[in-house]
Each structure stands twice: as C-alpha cells, then as structure tokens.
Design a protein that fits this description.
Strand 1 and strand 2 form a beta hairpin. The strands form three sheets. The protein has a five-stranded mixed β-sheet. Strands 10-9-8-11-12 form a five-stranded mixed β-sheet, with helices on one face. The chain contains nine helices and twelve strands. The protein is an alpha/beta fold and about 300 residues long. The structure holds zinc ion. Zinc ion binds next to loops.
Length: about 300
C-alpha cells in the first residue's frame, strides 16, 4: 500500500491541505490565512516565519489522523526558481524575494517538501487524473489571477527560469491596466475575477463582485454579458498564441472562475477559431476541470511523491 502524501494549495487569503492516497483526497481542510496581508504588514523574514509556521501547524493537524504521511507538496502562487526551489517573487504575496519555504518547513516537519508554482501543480494533477495518450496538456487556472501549467510527454515543464506558461502575464492590451508583476495590460487584468470586476466598473461605473456580475449576466444584464464575453475573447487570443508555440491539443480550464465558463464560452470559441492558424482550427480541445478544485492538491502531492 502506498503511503499518504500531503498536498497544499496556497492562495492569498487561505490555503487548502489534503492528504492524498492513490490520486484520491482522503482528508481535506481549508485554513483561513491572510498570507497576502502578512506579506504586506510584516518584514520579509517575519512573513516567511509566519507562513512556514502556519503551514506546519496545518500539517501537524493532518498528521494526527495520518501519522504515516511521507512528504509534502506545495502549490504556491508565485515564480519558483527551478534550481534553488525558492520563491523568486509573488505578484499576490508582495515583498517575498528569493524566499525559502522548503528548508524551514522541512526542519519543522521532518518531512521532504517540494514547492511548485500553483498552476503547474494543478496541471500535473489534471494530467495524473486523466492522462492524455500523447502525454501533453495545458492547464489554465482562472481565479483572482490567471495561471497556467504545461505537461509535455508526461513531464511538467517549468522552463529554465520557472516562468514557463505564466500566461496571466501575457500582454493582451499594450499600455492597458497595471498589473502586480510591474507591467501593463496583462491577461490576468482582464480574464480573472479581478479583471471582470474592473471591466464591469469601466462599463457601468458600478463596483460589483465577480459573483454578482456573473449572476447579472445570467439574467441578461447587457454590461455583465459583455464583461464575460470580453474575458473569453482575451483568453482565447492568448491561448491561440500559446497553441501556435507549443501545439498542445488538450486544454483544461480550472479555478474558481471556471464556474462562469458558460458565460464566456461562445465568445471564447469564436475568437479561438479566428485567431488559430488553419492547421489547428477545430483541433484544440478545451474542457472544464472535473476535479472540483482538487487538482492543485493532488498534483502537489504527486510531485512530492516523485522526489521523496
Ligand atoms: Zn502581469
């Protein structure tokens, strides 16, 4: 019997920890943790201490029921150095710079720790749950930001500098909205929940949550409908470029905003076919994740199992 592995999916205001056994999450808990605020308020060293201590407390809680866990995998929202495994920086967790989470957490927990970009971990989880025959898969996570992950021939590809598939920061509007990465006009400023909120505010002057805008779109509110169509079009343009570079035919969309996919899909499909080159039209299959937001946990756990 294979031992359990821990997978952690870290977000800006909470994280979810799962105990994973043979691709199944057998224990899961969401922990409220305002890491984004911690990084704003505390010095980098103190923030790092708080983050690793908080993660270790959660690991300790899981180990009460599962004392035999073998390793910990973490999907983290930031750029991860592929050599040092440090967090180079994180647009949503400011002030972290070359931050080592792996070493302190290994010392506290006594377990091997693997750190991966959150969208890459989710990509690997999606691939593990439904392996494609050719071994290739693109994952796009739509949440407060936009993340991406790439599996080629069954292997996760993070790139030389750990930023492969950082599609949220593809420029889709030159000189457009400012982004946490320091540039302007990035995809995630238009095709994320934050982006949708901004688009709707620009169209109407009203400030609504992405959830409320989606509800309004379902009731045919013109501006809300247009907001999601625009998000779909930007995403499709970006994906058409990506497909021309990596030529991967299977794309999985996940993340919280994927629940609003029906509001984006028609505009997305139309723009995708327009922007793809003829040889790829009709051949890029896009589907919504069936993993109910567990792909990140499962992928992180699987990655930790490979290296421990
Ligand atoms: Zn950006």
């Amino acid at each position: 019997m294979s031992a359990e592995l821990i997978g952690i999916d870290v977000g800006g205001t909470n994280f979810r920890l799962g105990v994973v056994q043979e691709l199944r999450v057998v224990w899961e808990k969401r922990f409220q943790a305002d890491f984004s605020g911690v990084c704003r308020r505390q010095s980098a060293a103190d923030a790092l201490e708080t983050i690793t201590a908080t993660l270790n407390d959660a690991v300790a809680e899981a180990r009460i029921s599962y004392p035999d866990v073998r390793a910990i995998g973490i999907g983290f929202p930031g750029f991860i150095d592929p050599m040092t495994r440090q967090v180079i920086s994180s647009p949503n967790l400011p002030n972290l710079s070359n931050a080592d989470i792996v070493g302190p957490l290994e010392r506290r927990s006594g377990l091997a720790v693997v750190l991966e970009n959150d969208a890459s971990a989710a990509a690997y989880g999606e691939f593990a749950l439904s392996p494609q025959s050719n071994g290739d898969l693109i994952y796009i996570g739509l949440g407060t930001g936009v993340g991406g992950g790439l599996v080629l021939q069954g292997e996760l590809r993070g790139g030389t500098h750990g930023v492969a598939m950082e599609i949220g920061h593809l420029t889709v509007e030159r000189g457009g909205r400012p982004c946490g990465c320091g540039n302007r006009g990035c995809l995630e400023q238009y095709a994320s929940t934050n982006g949708v909120v901004q688009t709707y505010a620009e169209l109407t002057g009203k400030s609504l949550s992405a959830y409320d805008i989606a509800q309004a779109a379902r009731q045919q509110d013109d501006a809300a409908v247009k907001t999601f169509e625009q998000a779909g079009e930007y995403l499709a343009s970006a994906l058409a470029h990506i497909a021309k570079v990596v030529d991967v035919g299977d794309v999985v969309i996940g993340g919280g905003m994927s629940a609003s996919w029906p509001l984006m899909q028609t505009a997305f499909d139309q723009r995708l076919q327009e922007d793809l080159i003829p040889g790829l039209r009709g051949k890029v299959k896009v589907r919504i994740s069936q993993a109910q937001d567990q792909a990140g946990i499962i992928g992180a756990a699987m990655l930790s199992g490979q290296q421990s």
